[in-house]
Design brief:
The protein is mostly beta strands and 189 residues long. It has a single domain, classed as Jelly Rolls (Sandwich). It is built from one helix and twelve strands; from the N terminus they run αββββββββββββ. The protein has one helix at 4-14, and strands at 30-34, 48-49, 53-60, 78-84, 94-102, 105-114, 117-126, 132-139, 142-147, 150-155, 165-168, 182-188.
Length: 189
Amino acid sequence: MKYIPALLLLLIVSSCEWIGNSPSLGDDFVTYTIRKGNHEVDNNLNTPFTSSSMHFQAIFDSSCVYQNAVPENQNDINKLYGFSDCSSGHQNNSARFGWNWREGALRIYAYVYVNGVRQEKELGTAELNELTSFRLAAKDKSYIFTFRGVETTMPRHCDGGVGIAYKLLPYFGGDEVAPQDIKIKIRNL
């Protein structure tokens, strides 16, 4: 009789399928994989986003060390995580952290679209295989990016809530597709 609840739970869990990337085994991170030759992660779904802020941790591994085919594309900013804003598409209004591998370091950026105009600012570097915390908030006419305890303010087109919005998952590029499989682990806090 004491095994029935466990069997019911096992039956329920085994009949479910994950939407998007599934959690990694052994921890509560989700491993996002961008396959060689692609821009987007496997099973990319832009799920609704209803908050005005996000707080998460990420781990970049050695798969994030790459060389673009065209040298000047090494400056292109890959996208880490963020959200659309102002009830518009993400190339009109959005905020997210970006990253690239350049000059022997993994560089982190604030990356926004404000009424269709892209703006970015380098925030610092992250170490490979190191747990790194990120915080992003929409407040009034600003986005507040927090990286390594330092707040950076970027402009925002609208004020108030995000409206009808969606999460923006990891993306490789710029101009070029991923030159190899890229893996990034993210845990929402």
